[in-house]
Automatic annotation (TrEMBL):
Annotated source species: Modicisalibacter muralis
TM ranges: 6-23
The UniProt record lists the keyword Membrane: yes
Topology relative to the membrane: Single-pass membrane protein
Self-association and partners: The Tat system comprises two distinct complexes: a TatABC complex, containing multiple copies of TatA, TatB and TatC subunits, and a separate TatA complex, containing only TatA subunits. Substrates initially bind to the TatABC complex, which probably triggers association of the separate TatA complex to form the active translocon.
Protein name: Sec-independent protein translocase protein TatA
An annotated GO BP: protein transport by the Tat complex
Task of the protein: Part of the twin-arginine translocation (Tat) system that transports large folded proteins containing a characteristic twin-arginine motif in their signal peptide across membranes. TatA could form the protein-conducting channel of the Tat system.
InterPro entries associated with the record: TatA/B/E, TatA/E
One Pfam family, short name: TatA_B_E
Major site of localization recorded for this protein: membrane
Length: 89
């Protein structure tokens, strides 16, 4: 028993579907479904390969290497901001 449905009931339903659609139509649907699954698996495999190649091609940065440093000016000191606010009043 399959959840209250017997094998005979499944065979009867399958027979009715074959009578309605015909074997050629069902074969075409099965082929289309198989082709779609193949395409999906191929796309997933290609995407995984692309991700692996992207990860391998990334440059590894070492923070121990000497490099150029740049000094950055602070925007404004808090005292300057307070004076600026007082001037606006």
């Amino acid at each position: 028993m399959l959840g209250g449905i017997s094998i005979w009931q499944l065979l009867i339903v399958l027979g009715i579907i074959i009578l309605i659609f015909g074997t050629k139509k069902l074969r075409n649907v099965g082929g289309d479904l198989g082709g779609a699954l193949k395409g999906f698996k191929k796309a997933m495999h290609e995407d995984d390969d692309k991700d692996k190649n992207d990860d391998a091609n990334q440059r590894h940065v070492s923070h121990e290497e000497p490099g150029d440093t740049y000094d950055v000016k602070p925007e404004q000191r808090t005292e300057d901001r307070a004076e600026h606010r007082d001037e606006r009043k």
